[in-house]
Design a protein that fits this description.
The protein contains three helices and nine strands; from the N terminus they run βββββββαβαβα. The strands form four sheets. The chain has a three-stranded parallel beta sheet with strand order 7-8-9, covered by helices on one side. A two-stranded antiparallel ribbon has the order 1-2. The chain is an alpha/beta fold and about 190 residues long. The longest helix has 15 residues. α1 packs parallel to α2. One of its GO terms (molecular function) is acid phosphatase activity.
């Protein structure tokens, strides 16, 4: 990770805080079908103490041993900024043209008043079949329609009831600025929280 202060960059460390014996455990699902979670913690001085950060650019990649996203970055807020605007979307499925119209409207609104982040609240693509198999074509349609919104905007996705019932957990694989490069069967969930 790199910290930017007045156009100077200083190196900091980001660590994996994990509760599994090895990293390979992050590629599997628990017995309840819930993906393993990866937690990132900032270590500014080598301790777990509270850190006050003025402005940091975080650089990260999402993936597993089979595929990695491109490097993605976002900046933390300047202390003077107190207003945040969020776009929330969910339960879009891949109905044409409704899903595209929702994504197009969010993009147009973002151009007028930029969002701090987009939150996808679940029932993601309806590509699940209730078994271990999924319908790749539906993931492709969903990826195409949401890339209008998700490219270049901070994104947070969550699962809803239909995602867990129909085995749509892979929807939370690679959330990146180029959403079309997701891997439907890469079972990893990424969360960047401040």
């Amino acid at each position: 990770m790199k910290q930017e202060i007045q156009k100077e960059e200083k190196s900091y460390t980001i660590s994996w805080q994990q509760f599994r014996a090895n990293y390979a455990a992050l590629d599997i699902l628990t017995n309840k079908g819930v993906p393993q979670q990866v937690h990132l913690s900032l270590l500014a001085d080598g301790t777990w103490s509270t850190v006050v950060v003025v402005w940091i650019t975080y650089y990260y990649k999402v993936g597993n041993s089979k595929a990695w996203s491109n490097e993605i970055s976002f900046k933390t807020d300047c202390p003077a900024v107190t207003t945040h605007t969020f776009a929330v979307m969910g339960d879009m499925g891949t109905v044409i043209p409704a899903g595209y119209l929702v994504a197009k409207q969010i993009k147009e609104d973002h151009q007028v008043t930029p969002f701090s982040a987009v939150v996808h609240v679940g029932d993601i693509s309806y590509a699940g079949t209730g078994s271990k198999d999924e319908i790749a074509e539906i993931w492709d349609i969903w990826g195409t329609q949401t890339s209008i919104v998700l490219s270049g905007i901070r994104t947070r996705s969550t699962l809803a009831q239909l995602d867990s019932v129909s085995n749509s957990l892979p929807a939370l694989c690679q959330i990146s600025s180029s959403i079309g490069h997701y891997r439907p069967h890469a079972r990893i969930r990424a969360s960047i929280l401040r």
